[in-house]
Amino acid sequence: MVVSNPPYVPPGAVPHDPEVRDHDPEVALYGGGADGLAVPRLVVAAAARLLRPGGAVVVEHADVQQPALLAVLQAGPWRDAAGHADLTGRPRYVTAVRA
Question: 7 pLDDT band (50/70/90 cuts)?
């Protein structure tokens, strides 16, 4: 299993949570690229190389990124790609299984 909370905040966005916004360094927050998903895409690619069939990946993302990250998973060697909400009901992470 690969579980990741990578930097994913899109450029220009400001994190909601004050403990994140006010204290975390930018390198830990901003994921790169026009949509903030450069690092999460690298995590998904690394998980594809590391996992055997049946292994699972879980990746956290910003609440506006779930459709784009699901598209990344659906284009790769994954099955059962799904988006999930956090405890506040916001779409915040995806899961998939290595085919």
Answer: very high
- 59 CB neighbour count, 10 Å cutoff: 25
Query: What are the tokens at 74?
Result: 């659906």
Residue 16 has pLDDT above 90, yes or no: no
53: nearest Cα among 83, 81, 79, 82: 79
pLDDT for 56 equals 98
Report the Cα 11 to chain-centroid distance in Å. Answer: 15
Ramachandran sector of residue 84 (left: φ over 0; alpha: ψ -120 to 50; beta: rest): beta
> Is 30 a residue whose pLDDT tops 90?
yes
The count of other CB atoms within 10 Å of the CB of residue 49 is 8
The structural domains of the chain, ordered by start, are 2-98 (3.40.50.150)
